[in-house]
Amino acid sequence: TVGAAAPSSADQAAADAIIASAAAENQSRILADEDAPAVADTEQRMESGAHAGLQTADQVTAQLQRKQEEERNRFLAEGAERSGKGTETIYRDASGRIINVAMKRAEARKKAEEEAAKAAANVEAQKGDVQRAERERRKEALKEAKFMPVARYADDVEMNEELKEKERWNDPAAQFLTKTKKGKSVTGKPLYSGPFMPNRYGIRPGHRWDGVDRGNGFEKEYFAARNRRRDLKELDYAWQMDE
Fold first, then answer.
1. Cβ distance 63 to 51 under 8 Å?
2. pTM of this prediction?
3. Lower CB density within 10 Å: C or N end of the chain?
């Protein structure tokens, strides 16, 4: 066979000496670099933190990660007081003066309460005296209902008197009543005692009414149509009975 000759012991020893010398030189260079003072990075950096110029993608990625880590460490070192975390927001007006938020909220709440009270007063002013008196009467009735029995029978004197005092515009027996109520209305004003055109709600004219009907005639037409419909119904029934 043809092959290279085996190295002699002298050649092997020389090669080992060269390798050991190179290793010692590398180790001394590393130690010298660690002991040497740090050199400032004078290379131009972009706003993102990466170096300017031609470089690989791995180098750019490492530089961006290094900058993000530095910013994170700096943010954590500054603390919540420096970063403003947990502090109250300061509001300013157009002139730059600080706005007291608590005072503004109190003023807005007070204004809302005043507007609500004003709206309630307007609604109350639109109601008539009779409606207000009826509401007070219902309140008194609810207070008295606490002491009333659960069941009220036909011999209940108070209930019967209340039903007798109630007026109904379509009461067929109203014309036979000889006792007429005189005096004052629910609001305490005098009642009108003269004749007047009836209406669906049984509302009497005011005691100062001069007797002139200034309406549009709707109530009159309503009662006329109602009576006409009733008469036609009775006439139709009479015709059916004749057949």
1. yes
2. 0.32
3. N
State the first-to-last Cα distance of the chain, in angstroms, to the nearest integer.
Answer: 148
Can you spell out the DSSP letters for the chain? Answer: ---PPPPPHHHHHHHHHHHHHHHHHHHHHHHHHHHSPPPP--S-B-TTSPBSSS--HHHHHHHHHHHHHHHHHHHHHHHHHHHTTTPPPPEE-TTSPEE-HHHHHHHHHHHHHHHHHHHHHHHHHHS-HHHHHHHHHHHHHHHHHTTS-S---TT-HHHHHHHHH---TT-TTGGG------SB-TTSPBPP-S-----TT-PPPPTT--S---S-SHHHHHHHHHHHHHHHHHHHHHHHHH-
> CA-to-CA distance for 44 and 53, rounded, in angstroms?
9
pLDDT at 1: 44
Beta bridge partners of residue 99, listed in sequence order = 91
